[in-house]
Every structure is written in C-alpha cells, then in structure tokens.
Specification:
Strand content: 15-25%
Number of strands: 14
Helix content: 40-55%
Number of helices: 12
Distance between the termini: 7 Å
CATH architecture of the largest domain: 3-Layer(aba) Sandwich
CATH superfamily of the largest domain: HAD superfamily/HAD-like
Shape: globular
Oligomer: single chain
Largest sheet: 8 strands, mixed
CATH class of the largest domain: Alpha Beta
CATH topology of the largest domain: Rossmann fold
Length: 289
C-alpha cells in the first residue's frame, strides 16, 4: 500500500505555464484524505519552488536542489549537501569561457550575474513549451514568473563565493540551442567523482554534489519517515528524476517524459498539461498499485 507520493515539479506537477492545475491539487488533497503523505522533489531551490506550491495551497515536505536540501512541512531546513567553493569557481570560469549563461543555487537563494540572460532563458523555455504562445506573450509570462522566483542578481559571482555564510549547492548551465551546446560542460566535469550532472529541461544541465540526488535523498526520507521504499510512489519527467524513479516501489513517467525516463519507470501517465500527476495518483489508489 502506498504511504507516500513524491512528485517532481517542472514538467510534472507544473504545467507549461509553470502552475499547478486545480485537477492536480484536488488529486493531492484526495490522496491526503486517504492518509497518504505528499511531498515534492525538485531541482529548484526552496525560494524558487514554494511560490507555485503555495499559490495552489500546497504545503508539504520538500526535497530541493535535486537532493541538496531537505525541508519539512513548516519550511525548516533539515539537511544540506553542497559543493566546495573551489569547484564552483572552476565550473563558473569554464562556463563563462564558453559563453554560456549560468546560475548558482546557494543556501541563501538563487543567484544570477546576468538579468537579461535570465529573462531570455525563461522566455525561450516558455515559448518552446507553449508553441502557440508568441514571443511577446512568452516574455510577459517570463517577467511575471521572474517576480515570483526570488532570483538575486550580482555583478560578479565572486560576491557570493567570497561570502563565508553562503554554501554552494548547485550550478545550472543554460543554452537556448539545447543539449548539443551543453555537451562541452558535461565532457569537462563528468569525470569528477564528487559531482553528478543531470538535466531537468531541454535547455539546461544541473551540476550537484554526487550525494545530492533525488533517489539518495528519497532513501533518507524513507528512513526518517519509517516508510519502506516499496510503499513510495514517485512521478517525474526528466533525467534528474531517474534515481528516485529507480528507488520507489511504484514509479510513473509523465507522457511528456524523455524516452530514457519512460524506460526506467514502471508506468506512464498523461502529460503535465493534461494533469498527468492527478491521473497517476487516482490510478495508484484505485488500482491499489
């Protein structure tokens, strides 16, 4: 019997407008009424993740930064796994030398050194995932979401690297062209045994500490909650979800998931625009998966 449902956010719980549908919210509430716990596991930092959840009235424990942090339902930080600043600086210098845009997730929030780059990246993402949306409309949507996502802008990343109180959790690297342009970053850092490189969208890669993976974090959550992994259901769409889909007893890939992710999951549900999370939840409960 399923005791815990864990859902990814982008491309999964969120539709292409980056919001939680009423149908998904109602399904979560239905599961909770049956005594099933719900939490999210996202690549986003905490301050990026909570606006969309709270807007839908969802308050729950969270695995954030791909497993770099764990928060309880009240928003209290329970666990933290970061990357040393020397490695972060090396990554950022290499990314800059390739002319790519990057963001850094820290214990104090998400940082960017290029506001225009941030807007362009978000606009391109929204336009490509919403083909009927014009560039102008995508730009308006991007600007609206940027107000919610609590991004901090700095002139130079050294400002945060030199800040003793700030711990580094993740580097995101973006390309509006897509994965082919990001391959050079993978090639440079995949051999580092202290790092793991995944992706949550066609236009990014995410660099975490090797222990900061959703599947590893899920194991720790299961142990803390005293819930067997076989009694956990996980839902995701991209390769940063793969490790938790492998660990969970019941796993669903979204209809819009990458093919490799669909091969890992036991079941497939609808797309993120067609309330696939809700369909998966109802199927799991009704069929007693």
């Amino acid at each position: 019997m399923i005791e815990l449902i864990v859902s990814d956010m982008d491309g999964t719980l969120l539709n292409n407008k980056l919001a939680v549908s009423d149908t998904n919210r109602q399904a979560i509430e239905f599961a909770q009424s049956k005594g099933i716990k719900f939490m999210v596991a996202t690549g986003r930092g905490y301050t990026e993740a909570v606006p969309a959840l709270h807007e839908a009235g969802i308050y729950c424990p969270m695995i954030t930064v791909n497993g770099g942090q764990l928060y309880d339902e009240e928003g209290t930080l329970v666990e933290n796994i970061g990357i040393d600043k020397k490695r972060i600086k090396n990554i950022l210098n290499f990314v800059k030398s390739k002319g790519l845009y990057a963001e850094v997730v820290t214990t104090e929030g998400v940082y960017s050194d290029d506001k225009v780059g941030r807007i362009e990246t978000m606009t391109t993402l929204l336009q490509k995932t919403n083909p009927d949306t014009t560039f102008k409309m995508a730009l308006i949507l991007a600007l609206g979401r940027l107000e919610l996502l609590n991004i901090h802008y700095v002139d130079d990343f050294d400002e945060i690297l030199n800040k003793e109180s700030s711990e580094m959790l993740k580097v995101l690297v973006f390309s509006n062209i897509g994965q082919p342009e990001l391959q050079v970053i993978r090639d440079e850092f995949e051999s580092d045994s202290e790092l793991v490189i995944t992706s949550s969208f066609f236009n990014n890669i995410e660099i975490n500490h090797v222990q900061a993976q959703k599947g590893i974090a899920l194991e720790r959550v299961a142990k803390h909650m005293k819930i067997p992994l076989k009694n956990i259901m996980a839902i995701g769409d991209n390769f940063n979800d793969a490790s938790m889909l492998e660990k969970a007893g019941v796993s669903f890939a979204m209809g819009n998931a990458e093919l490799g992710v669909k091969k890992i999951a036991k079941y497939e549900t609808g797309t993120n625009n067609d309330h696939g999370v809700a369909d998966a939840i109802f199927r799991c409960i009704n069929e007693n998966l």
